[in-house]
Amino acid sequence: MTTTPRIAIIGAGPGGLVCARILQQHGLTPVVYDLDASPTARNQGGTLDMHPDSGQNALRAAGLLNEFLTLARPEGQQLRLVGRDGRVLFDAAPPEADPEAGNPEIDRGQLRGLLLDSLKPDTVRWGHQLTRVASLGDGGTHRLHFIDGTTVEADLVIGADGAWSKVRRLLSDAVPVYTGVTFVEAGLDDADTRHPQLADLAGDGTMLALDNNQGVIAQRSSGGHIRIYLGMRTDEDWHRQAALDLTDATAVREALLQEFTGWSPELLGFITDTDTGYINRPLYALPVPHTWHHTPGVTLLGDAAHLMSPFSGQGANLAMLDGADLARAVIRHHTIDDAITAYEDVLLPRSVEAAEGAAEGIDGAFAPDSADQTLAHMTQRP
């Protein structure tokens, strides 16, 4: 670069933060804008498995792989399939010898903290909710407008602002569509002490109980917490059709017990014994393929570019790889335009392939014969 570009990253998720970290390592000065009031304004969610060729690749490029391995939980890779009767059908133990082997787990909050701590002070501007982005018509410069009335100009705008990205509107008319599956999230605190039977059934990683378009998923986090996802193939407004108040935990519990009639008492414990309320989470995805024509001065990464169901297992990993690849492209090319072109030549085909796999994954996991399909997939030989 002959001049230092003004780089604005919208969204302080893993992909945007990885991008900022690598750019800073090479003398650039990106600024990250996030709508949250602070880094602790909301819960960051469950746990992530970091794949060697994507998430770990990005962390290595950011100089943070060793720090990640210190925090990671290799035992969290355990994957268990359970029948609706509570019988364990498949149990894959994690690798024991090499902490870098496989896809070690890390809590989302821990990963975000690691990335935030690696950035220079004031890199992230909290409480900056983007309202719109306007092209200034001079070779890719854009003006960002925030809800508090402030504006910023940038030579490169990176949309890392998730499923409902405002930056994406500059590139694409695509909007997320409902996948047909809704998760209702709950949780167990201090599970090993307070809920030992459920903790034992959940194991050290992820437990899947899938059958007939429904699922009970339990995912171990650090600190003895187990996050629960109660999945249903149902209408997006299922709760409104049932006249259900989602803030009424007792009513939600009773509705879920009706939905999961016939499941074993052990699995129903993940509905009845929760320590938290219930959060309704319909799952959305962008149309496949989602592509766009090159636009000077702006591009996307992560869910803004390729929102897909969590059954890809690649969402955060791809977002981080996107961020690393984009940063490396900016560093290696003489102009922002060349960097965006090179990055999108890699990003777009990779995104389409991953999104197709994610669509197949959720269709198989929430199907009439989902238990049989999942068991066949887990036990197939390479």
TrEMBL record:
SUPFAM superfamilies reported in the protein's UniProt record: FAD/NAD(P)-binding domain
Cofactors (names): FAD
Key words, A-Z: Cytoplasm, FAD, Flavoprotein, Monooxygenase, NADP, Nucleotide-binding, Oxidoreductase
Enzyme Commission code: 1.14.13.-
Keyword Phosphoprotein assigned: no
Transmembrane segments: none
Residues that coordinate or bind FAD: 49, 108, 303
Record remark on domains: Consists of an N-terminal FAD-binding domain with a Rossman fold and a C-terminal substrate-binding domain.
Function: An FAD-requiring monooxygenase active on some tetracycline antibiotic derivatives, which leads to their inactivation. Hydroxylates carbon 11a of tetracycline and some analogs.
Family recorded in the similarity comment: Belongs to the aromatic-ring hydroxylase family. TetX subfamily.
The protein's name in its UniProt record: Flavin-dependent monooxygenase
Species of provenance: Streptomyces fildesensis
